[in-house]
Amino acid sequence: MPRTHATLPRLYVASDLVAGAPVDLGKDQSLYLAAVLRKVVGDEVVLFNGRDGAWRARMTSDSKRSVSLDLLEQIAPQPAPSDLWYGFAPLKSERLDYVIQKAVEMGVGTIQPVLTQFTQVSRLKHERLVANAVEAAEQCEVLNVPTVAPEISLSALLDTWPSDRRLILADEGAASASPVERLAGLASEKIGLLIGPEGGFSDTEREKLLALPYVVPISLGPRILRADTAAVAGLAVIQAIIGDWR
Length: 246
Known about the structure:
CATH architecture of the largest domain: 3-Layer(aba) Sandwich
Radius of gyration: 20 Å
Oligomer: single chain
Strand content: 15-25%
Largest sheet: 7 strands, parallel
Structural class: alpha/beta
Shape: elongated
């Protein structure tokens, strides 16, 4: 997507965005605009809510407690939501933030933390994950903020997996091979991508996954990749071969 109004701050808001309707920001966003960015009455920003596209808006109040804005024009229509599901075993600290941000940038529709036998982190701050997704969308002009689902165990995930969606498994135990041919055959299907933890899935987990009819194992090449690198590589090849890069 080409960049539009790149010099203007971009904010995700919960409000409906309708021509002529004012938008009142909450305390945190008001403080950010008025105190951190030092924006004043007459300055412009870009607003989006994941439903109504992106809008150019002008500040009519610069109170640090409650900034108000008028919507001027829609500068980008709302794109269709992404159906790409992405599951991953949570990582620690900054690397967890990284995989959330990159999933947003790569056009994921649902982000699903999956707890496996070797997962490094078992308790997640869901609000932080959502905040990271929103921040990534603001920075990269993504208008569809992915749904961030609560963490789920691998066994519970597989027990409830929909029969009409294929699950692409980044299989560290597979022989090195290009994933192009395997992915190309899935162009018309609903898909998800599952990335395991550092150290990979346990033998029992991998055997269970490979035995499922909807699982499609792929190799991500001859090198051992960190889990966060594998996530970006897997999403990139999916988007390039059967996704919205085509």
